[in-house]
Fold this protein.
Amino acid sequence: MDLFLSYSSKCQYQALNGGYGSHSQRKMGILCEQVRKTMTGMKGILEERRKMVDDKATQYRNTRDEWNQKTKENTGARNELNSEVRELIVQVKEQREIREQMNELVREKKTSRQEANNKVREAKAIIDQSRPAEAPAEGGRGRRGRDRPETVQSLSRELNRLESEFERGQHTGKNETKVMKRMKEISSKLKKMKNSEDSNDDLKGARETLRDAVELQDAAHEEVQKAAQAAQEAHELMLQWNKEVDKQREKAESCHRDLRRSKKEADKAHHLYIVSLRCLHSIQDILGAMKGSTGGGRRRNARVEVQDLMSKLMSGDTLSTEELLQLQKFD
């Protein structure tokens, strides 16, 4: 290229100083004409290449900007999902704490319920001790063959059973007479036992104690059930939030993978854009040298400015969009 430019300068000099008079000058003229044609052809090729590289640079810049926009969108989506994950984790912790509190309350209420159960058993024992001794019921053997004393409760259950069977017609003939007799005996015994119990002050007090103990037992059991239900609800909600955490975390990780890919593609496109700019300015330097010294001062100033921008770019500094466009459009 330097040789072509040297011949071109000589040809211009000869033309300015009288043309080509002698044989040697004519040979120089022929050679200069060949150089001129070659230079003209090269200019055309370089112009085509310059346009092609300029189009490539524009394409890479647009591709880079598109990937940068996707990177920005992926970053926002990832950050939003990570924020949701953090909030869900807080909810999981809250439900876990509630569950632990309710489980502790269940243990406390079970202790209270056991104390109430003990009071009920004590009250029943007092009642059994306060009742007058009764003869074993006729045919009234327990499941293990042992005789059991008749009580108001056992006699009442037997009477209710017989009445129900009698109403359904299960006892007829001689059996009907036998059942009717048994029902009268039970009614008589119940009346005597109740009269006896009503006159026993100790038994009355024991019955009142039993009623209070049973009420306390029922209340304690209900509290246990409520606390256990609350603990179970908190546990199920905690599991639900945990599933949601895993779901949102997977989405966030997917966005992060997309972010890394878009950033990688943006960096790749930016690298190709810079390479295109360097190629573009190399072609422009050649074309500028081939055009000669016309407008040299203005071109030198512009070239210095472009070289400053290129040096800034290659050193890792960030250029504005206007500066990048200035680099690409410099001609």
Notes: The first helix runs from residue 2 to 16. Residues 1-10, 12-20, 134-146, 293-298 have pLDDT under 50 and may be disordered.
